[in-house]
Structures are given as structure tokens and as C-alpha cells.
């Protein structure tokens, strides 16, 4: 039903037209009150989605040649249809052929209408949701007509001509998203200018205030700045970690190389220790042999002295070879006297030189100077040569002694046997 606002309690008749529309989804979308030309706009709420519990949406719409402003009090987000299905909504829409500038008052009027005329009759409020009690608004036709009269009377009683503004030069049929304005900030000039320029707006106590928006913006900026700093530091740390990983891999590789070198050196040390032990043992053997060689060398020196005495005696024998019996007897006596000594010395020489021969070669590595070993071996060779010459000299002396005996026996007179025996025994 359409009402004309006339002079009532000081309100001047401006030829304003006002209509109330009730719509929602009690069981499928249902609409009460609109004319045919309003249905396209009203039916568009069926597909609108919003999580705001309560809001006032303002739309400037041109239908044919006429321009209207629709003020829709919309409840959504927690509305269930009569079969308890989610996704429903409920709305009270006031259509005026002018812009009502007191948006706070409009929200208050429609909020009060919902609380006093809708709850308990059309919707039932529960703890966390509201449920439809009817499946069609026609069942509440009389109640809704009464509500319409009350709203018109209220606007007539508590408004003046300055509250209604012509819709000339307003943007119409806007497709822009609804900007959010908090209810406490809806009656400033900026909101009016925005609606006139953009053609729509959403007002709700659940929308943030400008201070809240600014705080939110500052917080988002701070979070963004912190995130950017964090990302920068994170990248730096990741780069440092990569460098450290490379250094760690290099250190591990170097550590493995050093470990291998250490193992190699340990093996070398073990081998050197074993070699040193063996050389020390050889040195000990060499020292023992050197001591033995020194002892034998002393014995050999004694032999040399005795050989020299023998040589001297032999020379005496050779120098005194004469026909005289007295001289022959003296020579024979001397030869027979030294012959046992010669045999004994020969035996000592053989025993003395058998052992030193084993000192010629010292097997294995030794720390003794090689030059000293060479000199010792050379000395031993000289002694062996001397031994060989001594043997030859002794053999020659023995042979000469035997020949001398024969010569003496052949030239000795008869009857001298007793004398020979006596000399021999002596």
C-alpha cells in the first residue's frame, strides 16, 4: 500500500510517497507489499550473501521515469527457514521517492519494528539463530499493514522537511560493493556525499568505526612492515645458513682428509717404531760382536807377537846353518824346542779366525757408520791374509826342519845316539 505524507504535526506536505516491503525466505523467497516494478530489486536479495547480523542497506534505484531510495533493514547470517534450513534472510524495506538524511533514525525505526512486530509473530529468536514461524507473509497481512502505518506516522512525527532531500543528481542503480559505515558515524556530510556520488551504502553497528579502521590499517601496516623485515632477515639468515652449510661441508671434507693423513702418519710411525726396534736390536748385536771382535783382536795381537818370535827364531836357524856339529845341535835343539809352540799357535790362529769371519757382514739396517763397518771388514780380510801367509811360513819352517833333521842325521858320527837322545830329552 502506498502512502502520501501530508501535513502532520508541523511536517509540510512534499508529495512524498512511502511504501513498506517485507521479504525473506521462510520457505522459498516470499514478498509482501511491492508493486510489480519493485520485484526485480526485491528478488535480488535472494542471491545476496552477508555474514553481518543486522545492517541498513541504502540503494538509489530508477524504475521507469521514477527514482526511489530503498532503505532495507536486513537480517542474515543466522536465519533458518521454517524447516530449520540455513541460508535464509529477513528484510524490511522502506521505499521513498526522496533521500531520508537521518540514517541513524531510519535504522532505529526499522530495528524497533523488527523487535516489536516481527519477533514472536514471524520469527522466533533462539540462542544462536532465528527461525521462521510462518511459511508465507500473507499469514501476517493485517499485522504488517499496521506496522506500515506506524512507520509512516513515526516519520511524520519526528522528521522535518530538511530530512528529506530530492534525488536529483544522485547516482542510480549502482553495481559497486557496499561501503561499510558504522551506525554512530552515519549522519555526517561525507556519508551523504558518498551516497549521492556512488548510489549505495551499508550502515551497521557491527561495522568498524573510522578509528577502528585506522587502527586496523595501522596494525596491518605494522604487520606488513614486520613481515617485510622478517622476510629480509629470513633471507639473510637463509643465505648465512647456506654459507655455513658450504663451510661445514668444506670443513668435513678437510677433517676427513686430515683424519686420513693422521691414520697414514700413525701407520708410518708404527712402521718406524718397528723398524727402530729392529735396528736397536741389530745395534745391540753389533755392539756384542764389536766387543767380541776387540777380544779376538787382542788375542790376535798376542799371536802376532809370538809369530814374530818364531820368525826371529827361524831366522836365527837359517843364519847358523854350518857343518859344525855343535852348531847343528844348537839349531836342532832350538827347532825342536819351538815346534810344539808353532803347532799350538797354529791351532789358536785357526780358532781365532773362525769366529771373526762371522763379523764381516751385518745383515739389516744399522745406525753404526758404514765406513766403520767397511774398515772392520777390511781389517778382518788383512788378518785372514796374514793368517794364510803365516800358515805358509809355518809349513815352510816345518819342511825345512824336516830337511835339516835328515841332513844332521846323515852327517852325525856313529856312537852319537846317546848324545842325541840326551839332547832330545833336554
What would your notes on this structure say?
With 426 residues, the protein is α+β, with helices and mostly antiparallel strands. It has two domains: 3-207, no CATH class; 293-425. The chain contains eight helices and 13 strands. The protein starts with a strand and ends with a helix. Mean pLDDT is 81; it is low at 6-12, 328-332, 356-366 and 416-426.
Key traits:
8-stranded mixed sheet; alpha+beta; rod-shaped; 426 residues
* Biggest pleated-sheet summary: 8 strands, mixed
Residue share in helices?
55-70%
Please provide the count of β strands. Answer: 13
| Stretches with pLDDT under 50, minimum 5 residues | 6-12, 328-332, 356-366, 416-426
Number of domains: 2
Gyration radius, to the nearest Å?
72 Å
Number of helices: 8
Question: What percentage of amino acids are in beta strands?
Answer: 15-25%
Distance between the termini: 188 Å
Mean pLDDT: 81
Shape: rod-shaped
Topology as H/E string? EEEHEEEEEHEEHEEHEHHHH
* Helix/strand/pairing category: alpha+beta
Amino acid at each position: 500500500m502506498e502512502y502520501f505524507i501530508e501535513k502532520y504535526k508541523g511536517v509540510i506536505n512534499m508529495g512524498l510517497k512511502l511504501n513498506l516491503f517485507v521479504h525473506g525466505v521462510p520457505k522459498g523467497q516470499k514478498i509482501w507489499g511491492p508493486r510489480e516494478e519493485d520485484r526485480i530489486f526485491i528478488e535480488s536479495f535472494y542471491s545476496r550473501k552477508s555474514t553481518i547480523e543486522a545492517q541498513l542497506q541504502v540503494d538509489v534505484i530508477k524504475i521507469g521515469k521514477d527514482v526511489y531510495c530503498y532503505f532495507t533493514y536486513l537480517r542474515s547470517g543466522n536465519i533458518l527457514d521454517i524447516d530449520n534450513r540455513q541460508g535464509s534472510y529477513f528484510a524490511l524495506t522502506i521505499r521513498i521517492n526522496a533521500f531520508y538524511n537521518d540514517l541513524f533514525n531510519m535504522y532505529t525505526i526499522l530495528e524497533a519494528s523488527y523487535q516489536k512486530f516481527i519477533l514472536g509473530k514471524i520469527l522466533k529468536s533462539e540462542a544462536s539463530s532465528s527461525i521462521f514461524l510462518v511459511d508465507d507473509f500473507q499469514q501476517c497481512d493485517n499485522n504488517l499493514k499496521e506496522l506500515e502505518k506506524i512507520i509512516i506516522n513515526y516519520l511524520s512525527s519526528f522528521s522535518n522537511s530538511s530530512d528529506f532531500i530530492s534525488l536529483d543528481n544522485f547516482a542510480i542503480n549502482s553495481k559497486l560493493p557496499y561501503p561499510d559505515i558504522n551506525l554512530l558515524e552515519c549522519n555526517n556530510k561525507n556519508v551523504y556525499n558518498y551516497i549521492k556520488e556512488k548510489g549505495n551504502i551499508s550502515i551497521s553497528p557491527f561495522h568498524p568505526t573510522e578509528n577502528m579502521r585506522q587502527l586496523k590499517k595501522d596494525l596491518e601496516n605494522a604487520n606488513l612492515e614486520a613481515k617485510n623485515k622478517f622476510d629480509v632477515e629470513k633471507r639473510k639468515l637463509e643465505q648465512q645458513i647456506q654459507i655455513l652449510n658450504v663451510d661445514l661441508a668444506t670443513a668435513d671434507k678437510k677433517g676427513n682428509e686430515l683424519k686420513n693423513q693422521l691414520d697414514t702418519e700413525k701407520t708410518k710411525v708404527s712402521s718406524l717404531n718397528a723398524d727402530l726396534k729392529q735396528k736397536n736390536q741389530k745395534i745391540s748385536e753389533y755392539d756384542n760382536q764389536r766387543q767380541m771382535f776387540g777380544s779376538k783382536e787382542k788375542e790376535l795381537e798376542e799371536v802376532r807377537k809370538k809369530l814374530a818370535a818364531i820368525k826371529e827364531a827361524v831366522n836365527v836357524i837359517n843364519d847358523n846353518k854350518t857343518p859344525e856339529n855343535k852348531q847343528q845341535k844348537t839349531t836342532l835343539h832350538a827347532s825342536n824346542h819351538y815346534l810344539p809352540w808353532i803347532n799350538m799357535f797354529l791351532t789358536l790362529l785357526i780358532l781365532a779366525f773362525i769366529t771373526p769371519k762371522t763379523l764381516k757382514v751385518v745383515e739389516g739396517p744399522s745406525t753404526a757408520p758404514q765406513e766403520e763397518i767397511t774398515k772392520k771388514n777390511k781389517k778382518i780380510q788383512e788378518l785372514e791374509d796374514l793368517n794364510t801367509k803365516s800358515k805358509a811360513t809355518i809349513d815352510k819352517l816345518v819342511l825345512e826342519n824336516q830337511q835339516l833333521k835328515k841332513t844332521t842325521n846323515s852327517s852325525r858320527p856313529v856312537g852319537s845316539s846317546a848324545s842325541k837322545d840326551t839332547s832330545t830329552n833336554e
